[in-house]
């Protein structure tokens, strides 16, 4: 057994470092095609609305990576070293792998800050990391999903109960409709046998049961603007329907996301909240996981389990 630590590549979507980096970020998302002035102005306005020119979003990912490192150090001192790899911003996934190689790491684990697998989401991260690792001579194992990890479900349930308490006592809480949500993807994943939808519904059921929530539905949000159909119903369409049914209180639970970022802070906290208010619905949202200790424990446990299958054997 070597004394070198196992690398842990923590991957996420990425966010601009500052307002000045929005155009480069958007261009990368668009596969090298710069946004039109109108598209750039719209995205910039959304960031202005949520951060007011001060940009704390990147710190969320930094804290998560640091939290995973701290948890691994507690459980397996010296056995793991955490690196970041972002899909659309620096350090890119490939940069994280190169950093591991430069440190002499030859065995590593990759894990995405997204509990639910789709070939179009988590699968694309893994593909890039695997190709980069092969080029550097690093043997890498991956955590593909963890949508029913007990500590993840517990962390979500804690947030559900806490947020429901804002509505009042047990009687008021029973009148709240809980809407679980995740980022929509193109409908064509359904014909591919992709597990994304089933995993999201499984998380919703488990979290609702753990929190004692009986009245819930699943919906989609933040669909891309392309000509092909995306998974629905969209949360705005769902809110419109619920308003017509007489629902007056909604709790948003965006379980497809683990951090505070644009799809949560703008799409839900601003756009959906205003849409709901215009229809007489009180709209609240659960807190995001961010660097919650239970989530950090989840990621650390998964990383260690994946590493146990590497040639170096079980660590710590």
Automatic annotation (TrEMBL):
Residues annotated to bind Fe-coproporphyrin III: 13, 30, 46-47, 125
Reaction equations catalysed: Fe-coproporphyrin III + 2 H(+) = coproporphyrin III + Fe(2+)
Keywords: Cytoplasm, Heme biosynthesis, Iron, Lyase, Metal-binding, Porphyrin biosynthesis
EC category: lyase
InterPro entries for this protein: Ferrochelatase, Ferrochelatase_AS, Ferrochelatase_C, Ferrochelatase_N
Record protein name field: Coproporphyrin III ferrochelatase
PANTHER family per UniProt: FERROCHELATASE, FERROCHELATASE, MITOCHONDRIAL
Keyword match Lyase: yes
NCBIfam families in UniProt: hemH (TIGR00109)
Gene3D superfamilies in alphabetical order: 3.40.50.1400
Subcellular location per the Swiss-Prot or TrEMBL entry: Cytoplasm
Pathway named in the protein's UniProt entry: Porphyrin-containing compound metabolism; protoheme biosynthesis
UniProt cross-references to PROSITE patterns, sorted A to Z: FERROCHELATASE
